[in-house]
Amino acid sequence: MSAPFARAGDPDVAQDDMTALSLEELMDIEVSVASRSRQKLSDAPAAVYVLTNEEIRRSGATSIQEALRMVPGFLVGHWQTTLWDATSRGFTSSFNHNLLVMIDGVNVYTMMTTEGVAWNLQEIDLVDVERIEVVRGPGAALWGNNAVNGVINVVTKHSKDTQGWQANSVFGNEGTKGALRYGGTFDDGGTFRVFSVASQHNAMSDYSTGEENHNEDWWIARAGFRGDWNLEGESTLSVAANVFDSEKEQNYGIDLQNAPFFRSVHATTPEVGGSVVAALERPHADGDVDRFVASYLRNDKNRIDYRSQADVVDLDWQRRTALSSNQTLTYGMGWRFVAWVYDGGFSLNNKPEHGTVNNVRAFAFDEFAFPDKNLSVVLGAEIEHNDFTGLEFQPTARAMWQPTERHSVWSAISRAVRTPSLDENYDYSQAVNTGPTDVYLWKGNTSIESEEVLAFELGWRWRACERLSFDTVAFYNDLDNVVTREDGAVFTQGGITYTPFTVGNHGAAQAWGVEIGSDVQLTEAWRVRTALTHFEQHNQVESSSTDAGFEDNNHLFPQTIANLRSYYDLGEHWELDAALYYVNSIHLYGTPAYLRTDVRIGYSPSPDWRFSIGVQNATDPAHPEDGGDQVARNV
To answer: How many other β-carbons are positioned within 10 Å of the β-carbon of residue 552?
Structure first.
């Protein structure tokens, strides 16, 4: 992908080249996603991986989901122009609802549908991203429901690090993207930035014919603000807000109640929204630290056959206190409120068509250190009550042993749940079978329960020498109450015979695997990072279930995922980067294995200017990634 980059006004924000960072410095990067407080990556008793701003830039990725391809154990599949799969540890499909995603403290997981995260709406300028923190495995004891297979925390730069003007643009076969940003200071010493970012995306090629899906282009534009202040007593305040506008061209079908009973449609679907978040951190004289985060998110989608709207308020408070020199307690509470509308017609609808959902939570996380044994233990749990499934208990127990400076071993046992979506509770969608009095009905189930996972993890970090390190994780997940698609009892109402389909909790699964990451500094100018994942899954369904295809979902996730990324400094001004991404076949979709090759050359004549040119999928003109359309070579 060709990516000319121009920057002016902020030469001090340029980060050190990643080839100049030692392995020890990389492991000393502080993350907050694993414990709700800043800690060294090497001290986290969890499967944590961090993508730095520099690695994201040199990868050529232009979106959060594309950057996640680099993370060990993560599957990213672009299968339709506006749709991506992005998940870890199994159960991939167009409905990736087991992954919790936060951007600067705003939880962007949606309960409106079983989609989970609408990746096409998470458009941000990656130049302003400080890091992406990723936890594979359950994070529900800290972050709540739906953090089943992992948690992603996107952290953007402090506004003091984005002063002056900056502009960047990307041009490629897949589309274009541009961003403009200005950073300044307030009279009271605070700093700010205002920004805009927009992208246009071309339609993908049809899986079967290889021809471009005409009239499926889409675009999105976002504008926003961030301000940061240092307050009295070392307190800090951050406020951020943004709005977006998006349109996507779509070809789809609408079921009709009367003849001709079905109509093919080409239409433009607008979607608008935005969010605002404020985060206050206040240290106390006794060493305690309070953190309060309040956010509001709005999303409004208007398609020909339905309209959906969600207003989400999220409040979160936590306190971190040292009970002794070897014990630290983090505890807090939160409230999430969703007011929703899903108003459709015969084809797509919910009953009721509007409502509210409340979620109240409390959590505690106790960390014990045993210095004489080089051992630390963490015990924690979150208790939540939601309007769908009632009370949910999500505990975790973790331990880390560091026998030497070069070795650390950690283990964890955790429970997490995914709560049902509005679709699964209230769906009321219809399609005519043989005539207007013979109708198929997809009907939600208000008695459906949360899906559950009991996860066991064992990890080993080994710094073999100053230039080589490994990070290995083995896991076993026992899933219960997994949602299945069930046949309902045929009934007649108002002279119409309905054949209903609904959802139940009649599935179970066991998933296990190993994830291996390595980092090697071959020379002062050359770093290579690798990731290898092997995964197995076995599904079972109760004999009372009518979901005959559930057990085939064993083959919804590839058994092997691997990548190799090379970062080479050709001199003071030039960079040569390359990556290989291998994904084994996905049998259920008939998607063959593929090997993707990315190559990039970067040139920086001065601290204020960068240019790069590259190609993604260089060795293959096109291939499907997840049973959908084809991803073409992108230059």
So the answer is: 12
Nearest to 584 by CA among 553, 564, 563: 563
Give the predicted TM-score (pTM) of the model: 0.93
Distances (CA, A) of 619 to 70, 174, 204, 296: 19, 17, 18, 44
Q: In DSSP terms, which residues pair with 311 in a beta bridge?
A: 298, 339
Alpha-carbon distance values, 282 to 58, 239, 315, 329 (Å):
36, 15, 16, 16
Q: What is the DSSP string of 601-619?
A: EEEEEETTEEEEEEEBSTT
Q: What are phi and psi of 44, to 5 degrees?
A: -85, 120
Tokens of 16: 């050190």
Q: Which residues contact 89 (CB under 8 A, 6 or more apart)?
A: 73, 136, 137, 149, 150, 475, 477, 511, 513, 535
3-state secondary structure (DSSP) of residue 53: helix
- ∠ Cα 390 93 476 (to 5°): 70
Q: How far is it, in rounded angstroms, from Cα 610 to Cα 595? A: 29
DSSP labels, 533-578: EEEEEEEEE-TT---TTGGGGGGSS-SEEEEEEEEEE-SSSEEEEE
- Residues contacting 465, CB < 8 A, separation 6+: none
- Cα 414 to Cα 203, 456, 539: the distances in Å are 41, 7, 20
Looking at residue 630, what DSSP letter applies?
A: E
231-250, pLDDT tens digit by residue? 998 999 999 999 999 999 98
Cβ-contact 296, 312 below 8 angstroms: yes
Structure-token match 């001199």, residue found: 571
CA 485 to chain centre: 25
pLDDT tier at 20, thresholds 50, 70, 90: low
Looking from the CA of 549 toward its CB, the CA atoms found within 13 Å total: 7
Beta-bridged to residue 472, according to DSSP, are: 460, 516
SS (H, E, C) 206-227: CCCCCCECCCCCEEEEEEEEEE
Show the tokens assigned to 472: 């290995």
409-426: buried (b, 16+ CB within 10 Å) or exposed (e) per residue? bbbbebbbbbbbbbbbbb
**Phi and psi based region of residue 112 (left: phi greater than 0; alpha: psi -120 to 50; beta: remaining):** alpha
Q: Give yes or no for a contact between 498 and 439, defined as CB atoms under 8 angstroms apart.
A: yes
- CB burial string 4-40: b at 16+ within 10 A, e below: ebebebbeebeeeebbebebeebbeeebebbbbbebe
CA 435 to CA 496: how far, in whole Å?
10
> Bridge partners of 37?
none
C-alpha closest to that of 116 among 74, 69, 84: 84
Q: Determine phi and psi for 278, rounding to 5 degrees.
A: -130, 135
Residue-wise pLDDT tens digits, 404-428: 989 999 999 999 999 999 989 998 8
